[in-house]
Amino acid sequence: MNGLMQSHPLLISNLLVHAERHHGEQQIVSRRVEGDLHRTTYKELASRARKVAKALAALGVKPGQTVGTLAWNGYRHMELYYGVSGSGAVLHTLNPRLHPDQVVYIADHAEDQVLCFDATFLPLVEAVAARLKTVKHFVLMTDRAHMPASTKVPNLLCYEELLEAQDDKYDWPQFDENAASSLCYTSGTTGNPKGVLYSHRSTVLHAFAGALPDTLNVSARDVVLPVVPMFHVNAWGLVYVACMVGTKLVFPGAALDGKSLYELFEGEGVTMSAGVPTVWQGLLAYTEANNLKFSTMNRTVVGGSACPPAMMQAFQQKYGVNVLHAWGMTEMSPLGTVCTLKPKHLKMGPQEQMAVQAKQGRAVFGVDMKIVDAEGKELPMDGKASGELLVKGPWIVSQYFKGEGGNPLVDGWFPTGDVSTIDPDGYMQITDRSKDVIKSGGEWIGSIDIENIAMAHPAVAMAACIAAFHPKWDERPLLVVVKKPGAEVTRDELLKFFEGKIAKWWTPDDVVFADAIPLGATGKMQKNKLRETYKDHKLPTA
Amino acid sequence: MNGLMQSHPLLISNLLVHAERHHGEQQIVSRRVEGDLHRTTYKELASRARKVAKALAALGVKPGQTVGTLAWNGYRHMELYYGVSGSGAVLHTLNPRLHPDQVVYIADHAEDQVLCFDATFLPLVEAVAARLKTVKHFVLMTDRAHMPASTKVPNLLCYEELLEAQDDKYDWPQFDENAASSLCYTSGTTGNPKGVLYSHRSTVLHAFAGALPDTLNVSARDVVLPVVPMFHVNAWGLVYVACMVGTKLVFPGAALDGKSLYELFEGEGVTMSAGVPTVWQGLLAYTEANNLKFSTMNRTVVGGSACPPAMMQAFQQKYGVNVLHAWGMTEMSPLGTVCTLKPKHLKMGPQEQMAVQAKQGRAVFGVDMKIVDAEGKELPMDGKASGELLVKGPWIVSQYFKGEGGNPLVDGWFPTGDVSTIDPDGYMQITDRSKDVIKSGGEWIGSIDIENIAMAHPAVAMAACIAAFHPKWDERPLLVVVKKPGAEVTRDELLKFFEGKIAKWWTPDDVVFADAIPLGATGKMQKNKLRETYKDHKLPTA
Question: Are B7 and A398 in contact (CB < 8 Å)?
């Protein structure tokens, strides 16, 4: 017997319709590539998103076909988010930080029919346009005045002109909520990038879970600035959450330096932000150098990689900005856990509380997780046992686009490639990527703990711990360190710094100093490259 | 093209599994009918809900069949919520305040196979048991020690014994999320009550929307005491929201007097509550008489009927407890709107802010609403135009159980029977029930405004404004007033009290004093009875 409730599919266009009807005057502020600060409202955004849908249809885009974007966080990109997916086409956000060869591979693999891009990326598009097999139209996301006088891109179209040619009379189509809505490729540190194809259902459910008080806690009284790019797992869902709750949005565009961000935080009264640790490093360096405070920001979500405890401390103790550690993956839409405290933690001292906050957090409702040993047997949630982390839920991948890589699931669970513990309160802590874990004499050493300790040393700007060959133990930890400009520290001083902070056998066998640590397109350290660089490094303990 | 996300149905059992795995130690405190305060955890609750599922199967209950409850808010009732729906059966919460004839009608209409009830309701069950056509088993929700020595109920079973006979090894079945989960009958002031049949999908989506920061804003750091009964539209969804976010729950059982509630609020550190205005009246009378404050409660949700502004003021200004006005219906699961403020309201003075808070609030995401004129044409959201309120969304009724009353929808929208305005910020304000509106010379007079003004008079305990016959205007407002014990006020003093507070032609033509105003089973004033009582009342203006 079925219930007798109304049947409405969960569609991305519903989010926009809700924002337009119930939060029509709420503001969306964007720093544009053109240089100025642009202001619009949800009402205007909804009207323009309908024009986008009509303009794409006029270009011949059919439901289920793919539209690519190479764009910063801004209102035009948001119009495409809703206009493309809302019309039944699939939004494919490309990461412009990828190597041009990868951009070509991904756009071809996704069969993008149209490519919309910010002026910043005109040189990139000029470099790859001739090699793209499926793109029929190139659209520069600007007005006529900012179009280039000449370009190597064939038949370059102007975004604002395409919109001007349409009126906004358009009814969002109703279709199966399982229809594909958007496509995002994994960064692919090994092998070709793989596509994750989200659905309308997964996106709306993820937005519900993302807005919850213990997740990102977004309300109509917030002012949200997503630093996390809209080309990186849909800005962690914030662009959808925003419409669901009618929050004011502030988009930083291309200006992600500390000064530009700070000015936007203060000028627009931002209360909440989200991004990867590297962005916050730039912002904190700027506020520290200029002795500035945040007057409205009260929390920030840090994910993408583990937040160094020193950064967390600076935010919380010096600036009064609460740091929420979050964890997820492209394959998870991305939200999996957020480290919101429980009542008992609120009674703890700052040190103890920080130890909880250093964990990646609790599963948001909808995501289930477990850790398993090498045989796939579930390990206890005791905060001690560490094993490979598996997840399942309605916004987690079942297979990659076009079946690449075969069936990724194990008994219905998705193996994350992370190694973690889960404590009895449900807090998960990543100890390593399974491929980065250091296997010393049959025991596992997690590299993240070691890096966090090194990062707490005042002379260290960045640290990576990797496995180095050892004739007796197979692998032993080697610490690669980038010093802060002008700072000095020796190998022995650093090794001494570990004393009492970690088990003796986890202490690195050696330290090497480097000018830089290679970062991938999403800001993560590329340890595979480091392992390659130091594959012949001879440990003094060997 | 479909997305490639995992396929998981939205099931009520998922909520319990999440709470057990990630909030296993969180507490559930219940004041029992047996008299004591009982403590359990989500882990224990989940284990016992699995036993409930097995016990019901052992009694012969099949998926899709209905299990009735007559019970207060408590952990055993919560076990039934999850055990019945989770196993695929349908939970039918009966309102014990209904007339026994209606209880019989509803239980028969729902075809309840089993009836579970608290000891309080043994006399009621004894009175109706012989007349119930479909109930095969009667279960008293207590342990062996509290079972009656003799009873007129045939083969009375003991709840705790049924559970003891089972172990907790049970996998929640997976099935279509559109399956029926629970059944609640409207109060049926006219005609027979009609059943609203919720689904697993509607219930889980409603829980997501209910937990959002701008709705009930429930987190793992809250302590929630639902005063609103679990026999009244699933305690407004709080029992589901609680599992979703892992909040501590406090159940008041049968003790809804001011003293008992206050002791529970203070003793358990309650931060949030929800209920109808009449309950709060009792609580506030107690705190005022004893000069008490709330030390942990920071907000309460008031719905069911409009919150008198005087009560709102008392809560907020005297006790520092924020009042969230909410509106919904049995047909809406029930949440439709909640009056959470927008940033611009926070800058207003208390008077202006109160005017916003007096409205029923903004639509929660998932619910769309519009007001229409007599011809069904949509009226503007300008805060002035008032018309019949229509709603749609995935947790709103499409038809009543067994098709009673035919198709209730108009072009896919459900007519609420309320008359309201919607302002440009999306705030809806109910001006009347469409059947209670007073039609004076072709114009509509809303009775709620008039009642709110009367309620602000210090001598008035309760006020109802109804239409009385007028030879020239057809209808004119008549105010029926119940005075506070010991207070005095005359007809003319009351009429004078309206001066300057309302349009002159909205002022009642007469006042009559009554000992009581009849209330329905859900605490709402029964104006149809009042209209009957005063149908021959001769207005002095006639």
Answer: yes
List pLDDT tens digits, range B334-387.
999 999 999 889 899 988 999 999 999 999 999 999 999 988 999 999 999 999
Residue A272 touches partner B, C-beta closer than 8 Å: no
In sequence order, the 6+-apart residues with CB closer than 8 A to the CB of A443 are A505
Segment holding A462, helix H or strand E: strand A460-470
Catalytic residue among A161, A278, A444, A524: A444
Asked if residue A310 lies in contact with residue A455, where contact means CB atoms within 8 angstroms, the answer is yes
Is B483 tagged catalytic? no
Whether A181 and chain B come into contact, CB under 8 Å, resolves to: yes
**Residue A184 in contact with residue A195, Cβ under 8 Å?**
yes
- C-alpha B227/C-alpha B512 separation (Å) is 32
Name every chain A residue with its beta carbon within 8 A of the beta carbon of B217: 213, 219
Nearest to B4 among A10, A197, A365 (CB): A197
**Closest Cβ opposite residue A2 in set B2, B178, B214:** B178
Which residues are A67's β-sheet partners? A91, A114
Quote ipTM for the complex. Answer: 0.90
Token output for B459: 């001598």
User: What pLDDT score was predicted for residue A189?
Assistant: 56
Q: Hey, are the CB atoms on A248 and B343 less than 8 Å from each other?
A: yes
Buried b (16+ CB within 10 A) or exposed e, B297-306: bebbbbbbbb
Q: Residue B159 in contact with residue B116, Cβ under 8 Å?
A: yes
> Buried b vs exposed e over A522-542: b needs ≥16 C-beta within 10 Å?
bbbbbbebbbeebeebebeee
Q: What CA–CA distance (Å, rounded) separates B154 from B132? A: 12
Selected catalytic residue, list B66, B142, B186, B215: B186
Segment A416-432 mean pLDDT: 92
Quick check: is B331 catalytic? yes
Q: Which residues in A299-331 are b (16+ Cβ under 10 Å) and which e?
A: bbbbbbbbbbbebbebbbeebebbbbbbbbbbb
Q: What is the pLDDT of residues B241-284, one digit of tens each?
A: 999 999 999 999 999 999 999 999 999 999 999 998 888 888 99
CB contact under 8 A, B426 and A22: yes
Cβ contact B5–A199 (<8 Å):
yes
Residues of chain A contacting residue B181, judged by C-beta atoms under 8 Å apart:
3
Q: Given CB atoms, is A178 within the 8 Å cutoff of chain B?
A: yes
Active site residue A444: yes
Let me know: does B100 contact B280? Beta carbons within 8 Å.
no
The CA distance from A22 to the nearest CA of chain B, in Å, is 5
Residue B471 neighbours by CB distance under 10 Å = 9
My answer on whether omega of the bond before B394 falls inside 30° of 0, hence cis, is: no
Cα separation values, A360 from A285, A338, A431, A435, Å? 24, 6, 10, 19
Contacting residues of B for A205, CB less than 8 Å apart: 10, 208
Residues on chain B touching A174 (C-beta within 8 angstroms): none
What does the block give as tokens for B449?
């405004």
Nearest CA in chain B to A346: B221
Q: In DSSP terms, which residues pair with A483 in a beta bridge?
A: A460
B62 is catalytic: no
Confidence band of A190 (pLDDT split at 50, 70, 90): low
Shortest CB distance from B3 goes to which of A181, A208, A409? A181
The Cβ of residue A395 has, within 10 Å, a number of other Cβ atoms equal to 30
pLDDT for residue B43: 97
Q: Quick: pLDDT tens for A278-323.
A: 888 889 999 999 999 999 999 999 987 778 888 898 899 999 999 9
Whether cis (ω within 30° of 0) applies to the bond prior to B334 is yes
Residues of chain B neighbouring A412 (CB-CB closer than 8 A)? 6
Number of H helices, E strands in chain A: 17, 25
